[in-house]
Please model this.
Amino acid sequence: MEEHLVRCRLKPWSPHNFSYPLTPIHFHTIKADSVLGKHHLNRIMKEAKTVKSIVIYATKYGSTAEVAKRIKAELGGEARLCNIMTDSVPPLDVYDTVILGGSIYVGKVQKKLTNYISRNLNSLLTKNVGLYLCAGETKEEGRLQFLQKAYPDTLYRHAAVKEVLGYAYAFDKMNFLERWIIKKIKGDNISTAEYDNDGISQFAAVLNQKGSTP
Ligand SMILES: Cc1cc2nc3c(=O)[nH]c(=O)nc-3n(C[C@H](O)[C@H](O)[C@H](O)COP(=O)(O)O)c2cc1C
Model:
């Protein structure tokens, strides 16, 4: 068998580590024709390359979910979505990157997201984190204030990236009072959606870059 020397990155909790007394410096050189064999090596290499990400979001009418989907599409490695309004959030242990997203209603982000963050703050502070919001606010200063208010200060400072990435007004989904409020603010009752695709790409690029740095 041809001899391959491979330098790969292993996670400290890798089930393959039993063969190698690795330190938390996860680089190791192995031979493809050693005891491990090719099959084993392929598995290790797959694991070594795969960064796992989760986008945990709260949404009322779907725009934060739409942004979550677009972020997921731009993330490298394995990524999954979790709607905190309907699904239970899996344990974070296996994830390297955690993205949190919510939407603003009368100045506030969803309580479910806030509560989840409070309960899991310590774990979140060990991850590669991105924070986003959907909000109709167009002024930069207002957007920044929403971001700072929606997320705890420690998490906000820890996060590699934080942005408002779009909004949607779906009049057909709103109740009477919501329609009335938004019509007053917006000046009409035409459903609109704007997603910042460049912002979404940059947001994911920052996380991809940070996530791939050992
Ligand atoms: C009743 C209502 C109140 C809103 N209040 C605000 C607000 O205070 N500030 C803001 O920037 N956007 C506000 N928005 C806009 C939402 O944040 C925006 O529609 C967002 O895309 C909703 O996301 P979701 O569909 O994922 O819940 C409001 C929208 C509605 C319907």
In short: The chain has seven helices and ten strands. The longest helix spans residues 197-212.
